[in-house]
Specification:
single chain, alpha+beta, Alpha-Beta Plaits, 3 domains, four-stranded antiparallel beta sheet, 7 helices, 4 strands, 63% helix
Length: 264
């Protein structure tokens, strides 16, 4: 038995067996890493091929689009846009010409006005020189002339001008200021006869007062008020006077309020 175990070299070469096993596993690991690197390289090559394929397909699409004819609708739209652009350019040029012409006219008018103003300004300076010319000729001066005749003529001319101005002013139509009023007249109670009250109010007459439409407006608890309109001339009729005259009808009127006031 001892001889058979001593003859078996398995146990004796245990260290060699471990080294062989370790080398075997190292070999397997190296083969696995090389396989992974090969698979990674294959995937990269596949991606590159896919990218090249996509690029070629896009180039084909671009070539197809560039070679395809443009539709007539697009051409028509382009023609319309070009026509509108040309019309706008012509319009701008015409407006520019009008502006230049207007500017030239304004410049000419300014020069004319300035020349007229300068001529008027220089006129009073030359007037005394012309006025002094008769003084040089003493023979033409009437030293014994009558000042009374000149005063009468000046007064007559002044009166004629004043009379003409007054006549012209009298012919102008004068604007009469008027106001439109709506008065709210409140009775004492619901037993007051509003129709009689309205009749009494319309009896108030004066120059420049014109009564208008009227109506009965409910207030509360069966009581109504009289809403009556009128037109007055501001220079002839006072609103305070009118309200006081209405309030004098004490048997019918409790109070008077101005509901609306408008200038005509």
């Amino acid at each position: 038995m001892d001889k058979s175990l001593a003859a078996d070299r398995f146990w004796v070469d245990k260290a060699n067996c471990h080294n062989a096993e370790r080398q075997y596993h190292e070999l397997l690991s190296k083969q696995g890493s090389s396989g992974n690197s090969q698979s990674t390289l294959v995937s990269e090559i596949a991606k590159a091929r896919e990218h090249i394929k996509n690029s070629l397909e896009k180039m084909d699409v671009i070539t197809t689009l560039s070679s395809s004819p443009v539709s007539s609708d697009v051409l028509d739209r382009v023609a319309v846009v070009e026509k509108d652009n040309a019309d706008l350019r012509n319009l701008i040029e015409s407006l520019r010409a009008v502006c230049l012409e207007t500017q030239n006219r304004v410049t000419a008018l300014e020069k004319k006005v300035n020349s007229e103003l300068s001529g008027k300004a220089s006129a009073p300076i030359s007037a005394p020189a012309t006025a002094t010319q008769p003084e040089a000729d003493d023979d033409d001066v009437d030293l014994f002339g009558s000042d009374e005749e000149e005063d009468e003529n000046a007064a007559r001319i002044r009166e004629e001008r004043l009379a003409a101005y007054a006549a012209k002013k009298s012919k102008k139509p004068q604007i009469i200021a008027k106001s439109s009023l709506i008065l709210d007249v409140k009775p004492w109670d619901d037993e007051t006869d509003l129709k009689v009250m309205e009749t009494e109010i319309r009896k108030i007459t004066t120059d420049g007062l014109l009564w208008g439409a009227s109506k009965f407006v409910p207030v509360a608890f069966g009581i109504q008020k009289l809403s009556i309109s009128c037109v007055v001339e501001d220079d002839k009729v006072s609103i305070d006077w009118l309200t006081e005259e209405i309030e004098k009808l004490e048997d019918y009127v409790q109070s008077v309020d101005v509901a609306a006031f408008n200038k005509i």
